[in-house]
Amino acid sequence: MELSTPAVTLPPWQDLSLHEQVSQLVVFHLSHDIARSPDVAAYLRKYPVGAVFAGGEVIEDGTNRFEAVRALVDRCQAVSRVPLLVGADLENGCGDVLPGLTPLPWPMALGAANDVDLARRYGEVTALEGARGGINWALAPMADLNLHPLSSNVGTRAFGDRAEHVLPLLKAFCRGLRAQGMADCAKTFPGDGSDYRDQHLTTTLNQLDRADWEASYGSVFQGLIDDGVESIMIAHIGMPAFQERNAHDGYDPATLSREIITGLLKERMGFKGLVLSDAFGMGGLLSHGDLTESAVKAFACGMDMVLWPGERFVDRVMEELRSGRIPMSRLEDALARIWRMKARYAVTSRDPGEEATIRAEAVAAETAAKSLTLLWNRGETLPLRPERDRRVLLLGITPYDKAYARFEILRDELGRRGFLVEMNRHLTPEGLAAMEGDFDRILVCLERQFHRPLGPMDLFGEDARNLWSCSCAGWQKMVVVGFGSPYLVPWYFPQVPAAVNAYSAVPAAQHAVAAALCGEATFPGMSPVVYENRFGVSDLSAWRTP
């Protein structure tokens, strides 16, 4: 497949007006900001931003098909004097944020597969399919570590919980992106996943001491810096080991911390690439004052580009520069970093076509198959056999409607193999006890992902009641498959005869699970998390896999 060819010329940033230069620090939302304007050209003349964010956020599913996104990106590029960086949260490929493309298993599945070459190809197909939507900047990978089992914002977005395990995979993924003409972005510095709370809701904390941080998050980010990562995203996370307390006896988010952005990342760790903020519409930032004024402070502290800083940002930064309160050298540093990345990734145009999607589907299938992890199989419960396990109750336990709908793929795959499968989602203990005798096998499909819904990575309400039901009746017949958090199956189903982790509910995972449950494939995956982790804020010893 051919790489990109030059399409436009990047003018020197010194030739731009001050207004144009400061506008290059801004990342606006393609659909929430630009698409709502009746005149895209006029909007970009007024706000000649440096980058746009496309597709759905990780926090929600995408709504616009990739063809529509590509058409709008092309319109924006055509009227922009300076080529745009076009970013999207392509953490598990493109399909969940750009419908019509391929959802890959979430990165924790790569951690379970533990295949460096596969991680590189995962990055390559992400870049190739992303180009079909006009994307040239993957706001991925998540280089965080899943240290707290209830982490609201990390979960299966992370490759695992140990630096020595995830770093080779992260490097390979990033190299795959860059080799196919897409900039990478390691996030979220200085490291999420040790606090169960969500920075979308409040300023969270990374409370590791310096030695533990350097052995974990610091090792990962330094390794990626040394390997040439193009950009790093800063989080709304405080880190007491490297910060002084603020006036309110708390800690500023890293996005507002000169100690973290300039002192730690740029100077001590030697990062020469582009520094991007996490979104400025998040509670972890908004609780610290006015959005625009915080964005100005972030820039003064060393931030090179700000994600959604508000429309007053450019005028306020120009005021600060003209007054001398922010030195012009800060703007020059940011523009030099932005221009280096634009020169590599923003001046090309391509559409790899359907071949990119064919390759992505193959990588999705391989990742799903190689990640499957057998937690235990007692009494030769697996493989399932139609002559013994013909009548199957597929019990979906998930708060995410899209995941439950995807279980229909597993249902149909088992049906094709000779099983009679009935799906159900909500059962009381009494209801399950009454139904138990009608089935030879109960297949529990347990799914809990970050952000779907917001909150710690556990099950609540009706889904928790479903867990209770499973402990009261029918558990002797159960096979449980975890399609999300790797912790929930050993926490809540230690007594069942067989248990598997698949880490993701995407279609490729459904097909892979069906084949392995029926003995047509093995369970080659390793656990990407250690159930007793010395960095965790909770004692995990009681949650060790049986």
Terminus-to-terminus distance: 47 Å
The Rg value, from CA coordinates, equals 24 Å
- Looking at CATH, the homologous superfamily of the largest domain is Glycoside hydrolase, family 3, N-terminal domain
Total number of β-strand segments? 18
The amount of beta strand, in percent, is 5-15%
> What's the tally of helices?
21
Secondary structure class reads alpha/beta
As laid out across the biggest beta sheet, the strand order is: 13-18-17-16-14-15
Share of helix, binned: 25-40%
Overall structural domain count: 2
Q: What global shape is seen? A: globular
Low-confidence stretches: 1-6, 534-546
Whole-number mean pLDDT: 94
CATH topology of the largest domain: TIM Barrel
Summarize the main sheet.
6 strands, mixed
CATH architecture assignment name of the largest domain? Alpha-Beta Barrel
Q: Could you name the CATH class of the largest domain?
A: Alpha Beta
What key phrases describe this protein's structure?
alpha/beta, Rossmann fold, 5-stranded parallel β-sheet, 18 strands, disordered N terminus, 546 residues, 2 domains, globular
